Amino acid sequence: MKSSTKLISTDRELLGLQPNEAGRYEVGVKNARGLSIRIYPGGEKIFEVRYVAANGARRRMKLGTYPALKLADAKRKAGTFQNEVVEGRDPSAERAAAKKTQRTGDTVEQLARAAFKAAKLGLHGGRKKPKRLSTIAHETRLYEHHIAPELGDKIVTEVRRRDIKEFMRDLASDSGLAASSVGRVGEVLSGIFAFAVHEDRIESNPVAGLSHPLSWNSRERRFSDASLKVLWDMLVLHSKPILPGEVLPEDPQSRLDPLTCLSTRLMIITLCRRGEAAAARWDEIDRASKKWTVPRERTKSGRTEIKPLSDEAIAILDAAAAVTRLLFDGRNSEFVFPLTADPTNHLDGHRVARAMTRLCRRLGIPHGSPHDFRRTGATTLTDEKYGFTRFIVSKVLGHRVRDGAKVTEIYDLNEYLPQKRAALDAWAKHVRELRSPAKTAPNLIAA
Hints:
447 residues; three-stranded antiparallel β-sheet; five-stranded mixed β-sheet
């Protein structure tokens, strides 16, 4: 490439530069350090600036094409870059890094989306098993509400531990979230960066050790017998639709939906999880053998679980079928607890949790979650009155039991149905026989 010793200083002189069929050539710009313009055989004219970086490397960077970039603008742009070089920056290297980032898509937002997508297939690392869709949806909501607004636009490789520490500190002090909720947001963020490590995009997880800025105690709440009886009676009261001319003795503005109440009662009497009850299907119910088979896709353990059904559970299922026929003019639904507005869809498990919040507030009971029923039942069954072992109660709850060598769990596929049935029958009998002391305020027990 030929270089001319002539310097140009005006647009007229720039316009006079003609292409050379022998090859491209370069002309410097007067009073603009390092600025030049290259003229190509095809007639294209491109401004470039040269400089020496702080590490001694000689750089050449394109600024733009003439006439889209005017001479005066090119001189100002070159001056800005030269000032950045004086300050120790390297504009060309920074531009190259930015282009690389755009190609790899390594913003926290893009990384999070990739992590959630991989989690559906079990490709996110960890136990290498797909996450449940409900778990992914919950983590996505936490990300979108709390993480994305603050960190979503940041480049993954540029996020430092001090950034995470500042984010978690602000979340703990300004969001109004409980300590446990702050920790869950931190766990989601840690999982996203753990995926980046798994994918070899970063060397280490900057969230490690910082995802729980506040300490909290695991929940130990359970319902007292008095609370459970009052809640059960209220759920029974609202488990049937109001017929024309019928008036319930309770405030109609705060009454509960019958199918939501029945779903909650099934959850209590079987000690299942709220999502398992809300999405129960009739083809999972075997009335003859009094068993409910929950497919692995809906269990937290990832294994198919068989739940024995007590007489009380069968009665709840019969009531749900009757309510469904009454609400939908004799039509049935594939779901045990369909939506009142749409029999082709089932209840949302979160709806049960919200109903419990309203019901506890209405009855003056300290807030208890649906999960507290499971803790209540487990504590009752292992008490000396009933004396069931933790192993059997864990089986009832659908936990993965680590009893003995890990290999034993792989080979022991026994469902322990007789033992589980005995435990759930005892629990159903306990609920039926509860009596609320007169004028005694129900409460939660903090064990």
